[in-house]
Amino acid sequence: METTSRIDTDGVPGTATAEEVPAARRTVDGYLKAPFSWYGLDEAFTGPRWLMQVGTAADGTVQHGAVGHGDEPSVKTDGSADKERFAAVITVAASPVRRSGDGTGVLDATTVSSAAWLAGSGLLAYTWPPQMDHSLRDDWLDQQTETAFTLADDLGNAPWSTLSLPVDGVPVEFHFRESEFGWVLAGSAHEGVHIGAYGRGMSAYGLGFAVIKDIASYE
Q1: Which alpha helices (DSSP H) does 126-209 contain, by range?
Q2: Closest by alpha carbon to 197, among 183, 214, 210, 179?
Q3: Which of 17, 16, 44 is nearest to 134 (CA)?
């Protein structure tokens, strides 16, 4: 069993309210500070592409971030959210247990499970069961986020299956699961990063991933 690292999730959908997320988007500055390559859907996807947010460690080092493809999702209670077609791709820097940059603590290792948890919690940010009262959503979200964490720590068992998808043109095995809210997958790229993704209304089976040559093109 892998150990999921609860890495700093500042700025990742799933850790902010739906109202907070859009206002924090649209800046490429944080992406440009990353010491790793960003991944998105490959050129087979011809729809809209947009920036989401990055997550940093206490010393300001960029650890992960997400970019979106398709319709920009939102939390809606009228059922229209089910018509949205989107896929978000999360890039997580692969790293072992290490000292923080400021020397004050230890940073946990990041693994495929880290990417799976970020993707699972990200999907929840845009999920709201239509029968649920507004006042209950925070409790539901806390519960479901903890469930996503538990699932990400056990990628070898149900409800996870495996799915082979191309990364930079080379087949890679991803861990994959579906739910009533959408799908989540996670795997490792070839450039020292892990890839997580989540989506709804867009099939995961035909996706491919590639290094983003110009992150500014997502603005």
Answers
A1: 137-152
A2: 183
A3: 17
What is the full per-residue pLDDT of the chain (219 aa) written as tens digits?
344 444 544 434 433 333 344 434 458 999 999 999 999 999 999 999 999 999 988 778 899 999 999 999 876 555 555 678 999 999 999 876 544 445 555 445 688 999 999 999 999 888 776 666 767 777 877 887 888 888 898 999 999 999 999 999 999 999 999 988 899 999 998 878 999 999 999 999 999 999 999 999 998
| pTM more than 0.90 | no
Contact 67, 40 (CB under 8 A): yes
Which amino acid, one-letter code, is at 29? D
**Residue partners of 197: CB distance under 8 A and separation at least 6:** 87, 88, 89, 90, 119, 184, 185, 186, 204, 207, 209
